[in-house]
Structure formats: C-alpha cells, structure tokens
Design brief:
elongated, binds iron/sulfur cluster, single chain, mainly alpha, 6 helices, 54% helix, 116 residues
C-alpha cells in the first residue's frame, strides 16, 4: 500500500494489504511517520506564503516529484501561487459585481453558494 497513487517510492510503502491484520498498522510504521514529519516541515516553511490559506502546503507527491518532501520551492509551488492568486482575485471581483465571466451558470452557482 502506498499513501496515494502518485507516491510510489519504495521508502513510502505503508504495508501489504495481504499481510496487515488491522488498518491502524498502516499508520504505525516508519514510512508513514516520515511522510507526516516531512509534510509538517514543508508546511511550516509555507506559513508565510500569501496563498497558504488555500494551498495549505501543497501536495506531498508534488514535493517528492520535484525533490524533497520538506521543500516548497518547486514547479508545483509556482503553479499553486499563480492559480490561487488568480482565483482569489477573480472571486473577489465577482463578489463586488464586476463582470469577469460571461458564463451565467457559474455566476448563478456562485451567487447561490455565497449569497452576494
Ligand atoms: S504555494 Fe508553495 S509556498 Fe505557498 S503554501 Fe503552497 S506549497 Fe507552500
């Protein structure tokens, strides 16, 4: 078993489904501990980021793919910052009534959900 379909590194194998007797065994091993500790260290570095409230430190798989579980200055991070900054700006404009989108369905759904 792996943490997700993208984290297939040998060091993060959490167990063998045919060998475990209890699901908690998956969370009580060194691989899982290493994964969580690395993610916590990365997210500590992220806390000053202006999109942290949306991104929350990004994806473990992306961090591993680009070098290290503990690092956040990689390509996915650049994409996350651009995407969340753009989305926040667009959303704020829509709330203020600025027309940035002609898709009536999207506008209707946003109005229903956020009541503006
Ligand atoms: S965009 Fe990058 S620095 Fe900001 S919270 Fe996400 S992973 Fe961390």
């Amino acid at each position: 078993m792996h943490p997700c379909g993208r984290v297939l590194n040998e060091e993060f194998i959490l167990g063998n489904i045919d060998e475990i007797t209890n699901f908690s065994e998956i969370y009580n091993n060194d691989a899982y501990k290493k994964l969580v500790e690395g993610a916590i260290k990365r997210r500590e570095k992220c806390k000053s980021c202006n999109v942290y409230k949306y991104c929350n430190g990004g994806c473990n798989s992306d961090a591993l793919l680009y070098g290290s579980l503990e690092e956040n200055h990689h390509n996915a991070c650049i994409v996350n910052k651009a995407m969340f900054t753009y989305t926040e700006d667009a959303f704020n404009k829509i709330i203020k009534g600025e027309k940035i989108c002609n898709n009536k369905y999207i506008i209707k759904r946003l109005k229903e959900k956020y009541q503006f």
